[in-house]
Design brief:
Layout: E1 15-21, E2 24-31, E3 45-58, E4 63-66, E5 71-74, E6 81-96
Antiparallel strand pairs: 1-2, 2-6, 3-4, 3-5, 3-6
């Protein structure tokens, strides 16, 4: 077992990884009101758990409002980003498999 110290809390950068094993990675993503989320599609599936704040999660097919307690699944390679951040956002992010594990397979 691993207790993920600091998971869900702001770190030194917008994204702070807390755990990496071959099948998954876990990190905290923090965006302030007015920030631009410049992330690109990932080669791994993602689950977002919104811990605090409010924004909208955009994909080409749908945009949804998210706030504390919202859980969203984004499949690998789907373009997505947080937009219209109205309250500082703290999100727990789970990648399966670990982030960048499939990066070579996408080329």
């Amino acid at each position: 077992m691993h207790l993920l110290t600091g998971a869900g809390l702001p770190g030194p950068t917008a994204y702070t990884e807390h755990l990496r094993v071959p099948d998954l990675s876990v990190g905290t993503y923090v965006l302030a009101v007015g920030d631009v989320d410049g992330q690109q599609p990932h080669t791994e599936d993602e689950v977002y758990v919104v811990l605090r704040g409010r924004a909208r999660l955009w994909t080409p097919d749908v945009t949804v409002d998210v706030g504390p307690g919202a859980v969203a699944f984004v499949p690998a390679l789907e373009p997505h980003r947080f937009v219209d951040i109205t309250e500082d956002l703290q999100v727990l992010v789970v990648f399966g498999p670990a982030e960048y594990s499939n990066a070579g397979a996408a080329t």
